[in-house]
Amino acid sequence: MFYPQENNLTAVTEFFLLGFQASKCLRIFLFFIFLVVYCGTIWGNLLIITLVSTSKNLHTPMYFFISQLSIGDILLTSVIVPNMLQILLNDGGIIPFIDCITQLYFFGVAEAFDCLILALMSYDRYVAICNPLRYTSIMTNTSCVVLTILCWMVGFSLNLISNISTAKLNFCGSNIIDHLFCDPLPLLELACSDTFIVHLVIFLIGIPCVFFPTAIIVISYTYIVVTILRIPSSTGRQKAFSTCSSHLTVVSIFYGTLFGVYVVPTKQQSSTISKVLSMFYTVFTPLFNPIIYSLKNKDIRKAVQKWMTW
User: Fold this and answer.
1) Which of 80, 165, 168, 272 has its CA at 20 to 30 Å from residue 51's CA atom?
2) In 104-189, where do the E strands start and end?
3) Which residues on neighbouring strands pair with residue 94, listed in sequence order?
4) Which residue, among 166, 17, 175, 177, has the nearest Cα to 83 in the 3D structure?
5) pTM
6) pLDDT tens-digit profile of 50-89?
7) Sheet containing 14-17, strands listed edge to edge, beginning at the edge strand earlier in sequence
8) Backbone angles phi and psi of 11, in degrees to 5
9) Whether 135 contacts 127, CB under 8 Å
10) DSSP 8-state assignment for residue 140
11) How far does Cα 240 stand from its chain's mean position?
């Protein structure tokens, strides 16, 4: 839908998301796959949140951060997947401008929070392995709650700035977004006005929300690896590494796909590859996280077994 303006341009009031341009059978197949994955994601992450909240042996900083990551994953997948399912069924779908900006906002909030909480989790593992005697004094309940609240505040506030900048752009040409959801890069390509300021704002926001957490993770694990290698016994090294292996797996999957979409120049990858990578970290990664922590963590496995026997 368009409406004329005084400058003889037409302002876009809604966008058309192309989704996957495939046969009806393939789209129906993907619909059921994504639906099952979405239900599994919600159930798995709610299970993690419930277990951490109700099991006394899981009332530690590490599990608190895991439960917060589950909250972020539920937000991320709930913002994207329901609309994606509709697009698959209808071979594309219309989304109003305000809904697109809203989806873009909460998508950015969830992504920023996941980046920040993963950095906090790496710092938690660093303190636990490199400074075990000071762990309880550094990672107190109060500090964990305050740091988590700061992560949410950073995500909500900084993404509000970028979204306001994006909403002020003029969209007066094509309204077709060749993507699965309102992703910032394909959306900005449709703008008629200069997007330099918006790109600059997004880059500046990426420093505290992406690059700074990445630096914390790299530095933390550098010290962790050095400390583990200094442990004389192989059993001790294996035990120390096992405490952070699940987190390292989640970080690798999340950042691998995230950097594949936003750091690799878009000209070097097709829209299909971009869609697949975006689908991976918005649909499948939130499902993998509870599975990884459940399979690799004895405490969570014991809590699940105890919960199932009730």
Assistant:
1) 80
2) 176-177
3) 16
4) 17
5) 0.89
6) 989 988 888 899 999 999 999 999 999 999 999 999 998 8
7) 93-96, 14-17, 176-177
8) -95, 130
9) yes
10) -
11) 27
